[in-house]
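Input record (one chain):
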Amino acid sequence: MKKALKIIGIILLTIVVVGLIGYIYINSSDIPKYKTLHINYTVKSDSRSVARGKKLVLMLCANCHINHETGKLTGVKMLDAPAEFGDIYSQNITDDKNYGIGKWTDGELLYLLRTGIKNNGQYAPPYMVKLPTMADEDINAIISFLRSDDPLVIADPTPDIPTNPSFLTKLLCRVAWKPFPLPEKRIILPDSTNTIALGKYLAANLDCFSCHSADFKTNNFLQPELSAGYFGGGNKPLDREGRVKPTPNLTLDKETGIGNWSKEQFIRAVRFGIKDGENALTYPMTPYNQLTETEINAIYQYLKTIPPIKNKVQRSIYE
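The corresponding structure, as predicted from the sequence alone:
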Protein backbone atom coordinates (compact mmCIF):
# COMPACT_ATOMS: atom_id res chain seq x y z
CA MET A 1 0.00 0.00 0.00
CA LYS A 2 2.78 2.42 0.92
CA LYS A 3 4.57 1.59 -2.32
CA ALA A 4 1.40 2.30 -4.33
CA LEU A 5 0.90 5.64 -2.56
CA LYS A 6 4.52 6.53 -3.22
CA ILE A 7 4.09 5.79 -6.94
CA ILE A 8 0.92 7.86 -7.06
CA GLY A 9 2.72 10.70 -5.28
CA ILE A 10 5.58 10.60 -7.79
CA ILE A 11 3.13 10.64 -10.70
CA LEU A 12 1.22 13.59 -9.26
CA LEU A 13 4.44 15.47 -8.54
CA THR A 14 5.63 14.82 -12.10
CA ILE A 15 2.36 16.14 -13.49
CA VAL A 16 2.63 19.28 -11.36
CA VAL A 17 6.25 19.88 -12.36
CA VAL A 18 5.56 19.33 -16.06
CA GLY A 19 2.51 21.59 -15.84
CA LEU A 20 4.54 24.30 -14.09
CA ILE A 21 7.31 24.10 -16.71
CA GLY A 22 4.68 24.29 -19.46
CA TYR A 23 3.06 27.31 -17.84
CA ILE A 24 6.39 29.13 -17.45
CA TYR A 25 7.38 28.36 -21.04
CA ILE A 26 4.09 29.46 -22.61
CA ASN A 27 3.68 32.51 -20.38
CA SER A 28 7.21 33.75 -21.10
CA SER A 29 6.92 33.21 -24.86
CA ASP A 30 4.90 35.07 -27.47
CA ILE A 31 2.07 34.05 -29.78
CA PRO A 32 3.37 31.32 -32.14
CA LYS A 33 4.91 32.07 -35.51
CA TYR A 34 4.50 30.14 -38.73
CA LYS A 35 6.45 29.86 -41.92
CA THR A 36 5.44 32.67 -44.25
CA LEU A 37 4.56 31.98 -47.86
CA HIS A 38 5.67 34.31 -50.62
CA ILE A 39 2.71 35.06 -52.87
CA ASN A 40 3.32 36.68 -56.22
CA TYR A 41 0.30 38.95 -56.20
CA THR A 42 -0.26 42.52 -57.31
CA VAL A 43 -3.51 44.31 -56.51
CA LYS A 44 -5.65 45.48 -59.42
CA SER A 45 -6.96 48.88 -58.45
CA ASP A 46 -9.45 51.29 -59.96
CA SER A 47 -12.14 53.63 -58.64
CA ARG A 48 -14.67 50.80 -58.52
CA SER A 49 -12.45 48.46 -56.51
CA VAL A 50 -11.48 51.25 -54.10
CA ALA A 51 -15.16 52.08 -53.49
CA ARG A 52 -16.03 48.42 -52.99
CA GLY A 53 -13.05 48.00 -50.68
CA LYS A 54 -14.00 50.98 -48.56
CA LYS A 55 -17.49 49.57 -48.16
CA LEU A 56 -16.08 46.25 -46.93
CA VAL A 57 -13.46 47.83 -44.67
CA LEU A 58 -16.07 50.02 -43.00
CA MET A 59 -18.13 46.95 -42.16
CA LEU A 60 -15.32 44.53 -41.27
CA CYS A 61 -12.32 46.53 -40.04
CA ALA A 62 -13.23 50.08 -39.05
CA ASN A 63 -15.03 49.31 -35.77
CA CYS A 64 -11.82 47.84 -34.35
CA HIS A 65 -9.16 49.94 -36.08
CA ILE A 66 -10.67 53.44 -36.13
CA ASN A 67 -8.97 55.85 -33.79
CA HIS A 68 -11.28 58.82 -33.20
CA GLU A 69 -8.35 61.03 -32.17
CA THR A 70 -6.53 60.61 -35.49
CA GLY A 71 -9.67 60.03 -37.56
CA LYS A 72 -7.85 57.16 -39.28
CA LEU A 73 -7.39 53.42 -38.98
CA THR A 74 -4.42 53.78 -36.64
CA GLY A 75 -5.67 51.34 -34.01
CA VAL A 76 -7.03 51.54 -30.46
CA LYS A 77 -7.44 49.41 -27.38
CA MET A 78 -10.13 46.82 -28.08
CA LEU A 79 -12.39 47.34 -25.11
CA ASP A 80 -14.79 44.69 -26.37
CA ALA A 81 -12.13 41.96 -26.30
CA PRO A 82 -12.65 39.64 -23.31
CA ALA A 83 -10.43 40.67 -20.41
CA GLU A 84 -9.12 37.12 -20.06
CA PHE A 85 -7.42 37.52 -23.45
CA GLY A 86 -5.15 40.26 -22.06
CA ASP A 87 -4.71 43.87 -23.16
CA ILE A 88 -5.56 43.78 -26.84
CA TYR A 89 -4.83 46.63 -29.25
CA SER A 90 -5.74 46.85 -32.91
CA GLN A 91 -2.86 47.97 -35.11
CA ASN A 92 -2.13 50.89 -37.40
CA ILE A 93 -3.26 49.80 -40.90
CA THR A 94 -2.70 53.11 -42.66
CA ASP A 95 -0.10 53.28 -45.44
CA ASP A 96 2.65 54.56 -43.14
CA LYS A 97 5.93 52.78 -43.90
CA ASN A 98 7.21 52.79 -40.32
CA TYR A 99 4.12 52.23 -38.20
CA GLY A 100 1.49 51.01 -40.66
CA ILE A 101 1.38 48.59 -43.58
CA GLY A 102 3.25 50.78 -46.07
CA LYS A 103 6.10 48.27 -46.39
CA TRP A 104 3.86 45.23 -46.69
CA THR A 105 3.60 43.67 -50.15
CA ASP A 106 0.19 43.03 -51.69
CA GLY A 107 0.87 39.31 -51.33
CA GLU A 108 1.58 39.69 -47.59
CA LEU A 109 -1.71 41.51 -47.09
CA LEU A 110 -3.58 38.83 -49.02
CA TYR A 111 -1.90 36.12 -46.94
CA LEU A 112 -2.86 37.84 -43.69
CA LEU A 113 -6.48 38.36 -44.71
CA ARG A 114 -6.83 34.75 -45.84
CA THR A 115 -4.86 32.87 -43.19
CA GLY A 116 -4.27 35.19 -40.23
CA ILE A 117 -0.47 35.02 -40.57
CA LYS A 118 1.36 38.37 -40.49
CA ASN A 119 4.38 39.22 -42.61
CA ASN A 120 6.68 38.36 -39.68
CA GLY A 121 5.06 34.93 -39.40
CA GLN A 122 3.12 35.65 -36.20
CA TYR A 123 -0.45 34.43 -36.01
CA ALA A 124 -3.22 36.97 -35.40
CA PRO A 125 -5.71 35.46 -32.90
CA PRO A 126 -9.47 35.36 -33.59
CA TYR A 127 -10.08 38.90 -32.39
CA MET A 128 -8.88 39.81 -35.89
CA VAL A 129 -11.34 38.89 -38.64
CA LYS A 130 -10.05 36.45 -41.27
CA LEU A 131 -11.60 36.00 -44.69
CA PRO A 132 -10.97 32.42 -45.85
CA THR A 133 -14.14 32.19 -47.95
CA MET A 134 -14.35 35.73 -49.35
CA ALA A 135 -14.33 36.11 -53.14
CA ASP A 136 -11.00 36.98 -54.74
CA GLU A 137 -12.57 40.12 -56.17
CA ASP A 138 -13.53 41.37 -52.72
CA ILE A 139 -10.12 40.56 -51.21
CA ASN A 140 -8.62 42.58 -54.07
CA ALA A 141 -11.03 45.42 -53.31
CA ILE A 142 -10.03 45.55 -49.63
CA ILE A 143 -6.33 45.71 -50.47
CA SER A 144 -7.10 48.26 -53.20
CA PHE A 145 -8.73 50.51 -50.61
CA LEU A 146 -5.90 50.04 -48.09
CA ARG A 147 -3.50 51.21 -50.81
CA SER A 148 -5.61 54.25 -51.69
CA ASP A 149 -5.27 57.88 -50.63
CA ASP A 150 -8.55 57.82 -48.74
CA PRO A 151 -8.35 59.90 -45.51
CA LEU A 152 -9.00 56.80 -43.40
CA VAL A 153 -5.88 55.00 -44.59
CA ILE A 154 -3.50 57.67 -45.83
CA ALA A 155 -0.13 57.31 -44.07
CA ASP A 156 -0.21 58.30 -40.40
CA PRO A 157 2.84 57.86 -38.12
CA THR A 158 0.89 56.89 -35.01
CA PRO A 159 2.91 54.13 -33.31
CA ASP A 160 1.24 50.84 -32.52
CA ILE A 161 0.65 50.00 -28.88
CA PRO A 162 1.87 46.42 -28.43
CA THR A 163 -0.76 43.89 -27.45
CA ASN A 164 -0.14 42.08 -24.17
CA PRO A 165 -1.75 38.66 -24.66
CA SER A 166 -2.62 36.62 -21.59
CA PHE A 167 -1.46 33.09 -20.83
CA LEU A 168 -4.88 31.86 -21.97
CA THR A 169 -4.48 33.53 -25.37
CA LYS A 170 -0.99 32.09 -25.80
CA LEU A 171 -2.22 28.64 -24.80
CA LEU A 172 -5.24 28.71 -27.11
CA CYS A 173 -3.01 29.81 -29.99
CA ARG A 174 -1.12 26.55 -29.50
CA VAL A 175 -3.99 24.12 -29.00
CA ALA A 176 -7.16 25.53 -30.54
CA TRP A 177 -6.66 28.63 -32.68
CA LYS A 178 -4.83 27.90 -35.89
CA PRO A 179 -4.27 29.73 -39.20
CA PHE A 180 -6.67 29.02 -42.05
CA PRO A 181 -5.40 27.39 -45.24
CA LEU A 182 -5.13 29.38 -48.43
CA PRO A 183 -7.98 28.57 -50.84
CA GLU A 184 -6.92 25.94 -53.36
CA LYS A 185 -8.90 27.52 -56.18
CA ARG A 186 -10.42 30.82 -57.14
CA ILE A 187 -13.45 32.01 -55.19
CA ILE A 188 -15.96 33.73 -57.44
CA LEU A 189 -18.30 36.51 -56.30
CA PRO A 190 -21.93 35.34 -56.58
CA ASP A 191 -24.03 36.76 -59.38
CA SER A 192 -26.09 39.64 -57.99
CA THR A 193 -29.19 38.17 -59.68
CA ASN A 194 -28.87 34.96 -57.63
CA THR A 195 -30.51 36.31 -54.49
CA ILE A 196 -30.06 33.29 -52.23
CA ALA A 197 -26.42 32.73 -53.19
CA LEU A 198 -25.67 36.43 -52.68
CA GLY A 199 -27.39 36.42 -49.28
CA LYS A 200 -25.47 33.35 -48.16
CA TYR A 201 -22.21 34.92 -49.29
CA LEU A 202 -22.86 38.19 -47.46
CA ALA A 203 -24.07 36.43 -44.31
CA ALA A 204 -20.83 34.45 -44.17
CA ASN A 205 -18.30 37.06 -45.26
CA LEU A 206 -19.67 40.02 -43.33
CA ASP A 207 -19.27 37.78 -40.26
CA CYS A 208 -23.02 37.85 -39.49
CA PHE A 209 -23.14 34.13 -38.69
CA SER A 210 -20.18 34.43 -36.31
CA CYS A 211 -22.06 36.59 -33.83
CA HIS A 212 -25.55 35.26 -34.45
CA SER A 213 -24.79 31.56 -34.00
CA ALA A 214 -24.55 29.78 -30.65
CA ASP A 215 -20.96 30.42 -29.58
CA PHE A 216 -17.70 31.74 -31.01
CA LYS A 217 -16.04 28.51 -29.82
CA THR A 218 -18.21 26.33 -32.07
CA ASN A 219 -18.21 28.51 -35.20
CA ASN A 220 -17.00 26.90 -38.41
CA PHE A 221 -15.36 29.63 -40.48
CA LEU A 222 -14.60 27.40 -43.46
CA GLN A 223 -18.16 26.04 -43.61
CA PRO A 224 -20.27 28.56 -41.68
CA GLU A 225 -23.55 26.67 -42.10
CA LEU A 226 -22.05 23.85 -39.96
CA SER A 227 -21.70 26.19 -36.96
CA ALA A 228 -23.66 25.15 -33.89
CA GLY A 229 -26.97 27.00 -33.62
CA TYR A 230 -26.44 28.59 -37.03
CA PHE A 231 -28.14 32.00 -36.88
CA GLY A 232 -30.12 30.89 -33.83
CA GLY A 233 -28.49 33.60 -31.68
CA GLY A 234 -27.42 33.42 -28.06
CA ASN A 235 -23.74 34.14 -28.59
CA LYS A 236 -22.21 36.53 -26.05
CA PRO A 237 -20.06 39.31 -27.57
CA LEU A 238 -19.13 42.29 -25.42
CA ASP A 239 -19.77 45.98 -25.85
CA ARG A 240 -17.15 48.68 -25.21
CA GLU A 241 -17.97 48.61 -21.50
CA GLY A 242 -17.22 44.89 -21.33
CA ARG A 243 -20.89 44.02 -20.87
CA VAL A 244 -22.34 40.88 -22.44
CA LYS A 245 -24.74 41.59 -25.32
CA PRO A 246 -26.49 38.32 -26.26
CA THR A 247 -27.17 38.15 -29.99
CA PRO A 248 -30.73 37.78 -31.32
CA ASN A 249 -32.10 34.71 -33.03
CA LEU A 250 -32.23 35.53 -36.75
CA THR A 251 -33.92 32.36 -37.90
CA LEU A 252 -37.56 32.69 -38.92
CA ASP A 253 -38.97 31.04 -35.82
CA LYS A 254 -42.19 32.96 -35.15
CA GLU A 255 -41.93 32.89 -31.35
CA THR A 256 -38.24 33.48 -30.69
CA GLY A 257 -36.78 34.63 -34.01
CA ILE A 258 -37.76 37.05 -36.77
CA GLY A 259 -40.52 34.94 -38.27
CA ASN A 260 -43.03 37.74 -37.81
CA TRP A 261 -40.81 40.43 -39.31
CA SER A 262 -41.52 41.79 -42.75
CA LYS A 263 -38.78 42.22 -45.31
CA GLU A 264 -39.11 45.99 -44.93
CA GLN A 265 -38.67 45.79 -41.14
CA PHE A 266 -35.53 43.68 -41.57
CA ILE A 267 -34.04 46.09 -44.10
CA ARG A 268 -34.70 49.13 -41.87
CA ALA A 269 -33.21 47.37 -38.83
CA VAL A 270 -30.02 46.30 -40.59
CA ARG A 271 -29.51 49.45 -42.62
CA PHE A 272 -30.63 52.11 -40.14
CA GLY A 273 -30.84 50.34 -36.76
CA ILE A 274 -34.54 51.14 -36.34
CA LYS A 275 -37.60 48.89 -35.92
CA ASP A 276 -41.06 50.34 -35.46
CA GLY A 277 -39.69 53.68 -34.31
CA GLU A 278 -37.27 52.38 -31.68
CA ASN A 279 -33.64 51.31 -31.65
CA ALA A 280 -33.17 47.82 -33.03
CA LEU A 281 -29.38 47.63 -32.70
CA THR A 282 -26.78 48.35 -30.05
CA TYR A 283 -23.01 47.90 -30.18
CA PRO A 284 -21.30 45.64 -31.16
CA MET A 285 -23.91 45.52 -33.91
CA THR A 286 -24.01 48.80 -35.79
CA PRO A 287 -26.19 49.83 -38.76
CA TYR A 288 -24.87 48.58 -42.09
CA ASN A 289 -25.90 51.60 -44.12
CA GLN A 290 -23.17 50.69 -46.59
CA LEU A 291 -25.33 47.82 -47.81
CA THR A 292 -27.96 48.38 -50.46
CA GLU A 293 -31.58 47.33 -50.00
CA THR A 294 -30.93 44.63 -52.59
CA GLU A 295 -28.07 43.20 -50.55
CA ILE A 296 -29.97 43.25 -47.25
CA ASN A 297 -32.99 41.70 -48.95
CA ALA A 298 -30.67 38.95 -50.22
CA ILE A 299 -29.58 38.23 -46.64
CA TYR A 300 -33.22 38.16 -45.54
CA GLN A 301 -34.19 35.77 -48.34
CA TYR A 302 -31.28 33.52 -47.42
CA LEU A 303 -32.30 33.50 -43.75
CA LYS A 304 -35.70 32.24 -44.90
CA THR A 305 -34.00 29.09 -46.22
CA ILE A 306 -32.43 28.25 -42.82
CA PRO A 307 -34.44 25.83 -40.63
CA PRO A 308 -36.01 27.84 -37.77
CA ILE A 309 -34.44 27.39 -34.36
CA LYS A 310 -36.51 27.89 -31.21
CA ASN A 311 -34.15 29.83 -28.98
CA LYS A 312 -35.46 32.74 -26.94
CA VAL A 313 -32.73 35.28 -26.27
CA GLN A 314 -33.26 37.95 -23.65
CA ARG A 315 -32.41 41.25 -25.29
CA SER A 316 -30.02 43.52 -23.44
CA ILE A 317 -31.88 46.50 -21.99
CA TYR A 318 -28.88 48.81 -21.78
CA GLU A 319 -27.73 50.84 -24.74
